[in-house]
């Protein structure tokens, strides 16, 4: 699968270099979250890359839940156990858990279909900022700290009616946000279709920290800068 260029096998574990993680975020997901920049002080591997590796290794189950327990830094050795268990923990060599997975039901292992789903999912995910998250913030009249933006992928849930499909594609449903003081939780809902048939649904849960009162001009300037950076990078790839 195309993921091989985004990680390395080291002593039986998976290691993701900062450059590999950043390339995946920008070139596959079109996600320009500063946390995925190689030189970021709080650099972390994109949750979407970890999710993708899970599907590559374990297949796609009818019911799946992913909980991201910790931020994976540069070169951390991750252990994806060889198991058929319904609960899986991805840990480092010290036993620290970074990702908890729960799964049940039938399993699809067709790598071509899984790659199609991964590419569509991460493309959807990469559009979350600014096109989904910013309207939610404006609606709630809040925004994050523009000097230290912290938007973290907390969890994701997938449920399928069946796995007898050939060309899965995601469609966004109505997102929601709950604000509690200086933190907010965004729920990004989607459905999965095969042709005209809805075969599954799910949602991505994001945590937004450091909230403050909404100011239109600074937030718009931040969004404009983000999009300019994104467009410049992608233009160089073309």
Task: Outline the structure in words.
The protein has 238 residues and is an alpha+beta fold. The two termini are 22 Å apart. Strands 3, 5, 6, 8, 9, 10, 11 and 12 form an 8-stranded antiparallel beta sheet that branches. It is built from 5 helices and 13 strands. The model has no long low-confidence stretch (mean pLDDT 95). The chain has a single domain (2-237), classed as Porin. Helix 2 (47-58) packs antiparallel against helix 3.
Q: What is the average per-residue confidence, as pLDDT, rounded to a whole number? A: 95
Question: Count the helices. How many?
Answer: 5
In CATH terms, what is the architecture?
Answer: Beta Barrel
- Provide the β-strand percentage band: 25-35%
In the predicted model, the low-confidence regions spanning at least 5 consecutive residues are none
| Helicity range | 25-40%
Number of separate domains? 1
Terminus-to-terminus distance: 22 Å
CATH domain class: Mainly Beta
The largest sheet is: 8 strands, antiparallel
* N-to-C series of helices and strands: EEHHEEEEHHEEEEEEEH
Rg from C-alpha positions? 18 Å
What's the count of strands? 13
